[in-house]
Write a structure and sequence with these properties.
single chain; 216 residues; alpha/beta; 6-stranded mixed β-sheet; 6 strands; 36% helix; 19% strand
Length: 216
């Protein structure tokens, strides 16, 4: 197995904070890597048909079998999700469910290193989401080595109706009378503490994988 890292993003927003944080970690690791955006492919939820039990191959006809091959070849995963209604987003949830097909008998992902990235408007809602992902990883006998929580943006800032909609999150976050605008969006690159963490996590990934290789 080569020292390759697979980054997987559950954010459907083009070039999102989640995407860019994952890519920055991959770059900081200085190892071979690949990035997959789940909204660009089709990965349906697990159907619990159990047809994967004998050969660890999911029988659904979508893009997961090809993605599973990438997961299997990788030494480490960087899984990025976003907090949706105080819970895990649907794309990431479906991906995690489908990893079940690789679990039976051979436990194909055992020992893989995992970094978790979660984007959310509020840290108090992002942390439980990161714990959901971490639980999935433990169930697959993978090892979470780092977790990073980044600031995301309420969609009301860029939906076009955020200034007048009675359900808008803009005034809740920024005060009554706030004019919703992309100018209020925070970029991951402007989050100083996060950028420091990203560089540190990249180095940790690099060191963990090389240490693991030298022990095998």
């Amino acid at each position: 197995m080569s020292l390759k890292i697979l980054g997987v993003s559950g954010s459907p927003v083009p070039n999102s904070n989640t995407d860019r944080a994952i890519k920055a970690i991959l770059k900081a690791s200085k190892l071979e890597s690949e990035f997959v955006k789940l909204s660009d492919i089709t990965v349906r939820p697990c159907r619990a048909c159990k047809r994967c039990v004998e050969d660890n191959i999911c029988k659904q006809e979508d893009d997961f079998p090809a993605l599973a091959s990438k997961v299997r070849e990788a030494s480490a995963l960087v899984i990025g999700a976003y907090c949706s209604y105080n819970s895990l987003d649907a794309h990431t949830k479906a991906f995690l469910e489908r990893l079940w097909s690789m679990r039976h008998q051979k436990n194909l992902n055992e020992g893989k290193q995992v970094v978790i990235v979660v984007s959310g408007v509020l840290p108090m809602t992002s942390k439980p989401v990161s714990q959901i992902i971490a639980h999935h990883m433990r169930m697959e006998n993978m090892k979470v080595i780092e977790t990073i929580l980044i600031r995301g943006n309420v969609p009301c800032l860029t939906c076009g109706r955020g200034s007048e909609c009675k359900m808008s999150g803009a005034p809740v976050l920024f005060g009554k009378g706030t004019k919703a605008s992309s100018d209020l969006c925070i970029r991951v690159e402007d989050q100083v503490d996060v950028q420091k963490q990203i560089n540190q996590i990249g180095e940790v990934l690099h060191d963990h994988l090389f240490d693991k290789k030298n022990k095998t």
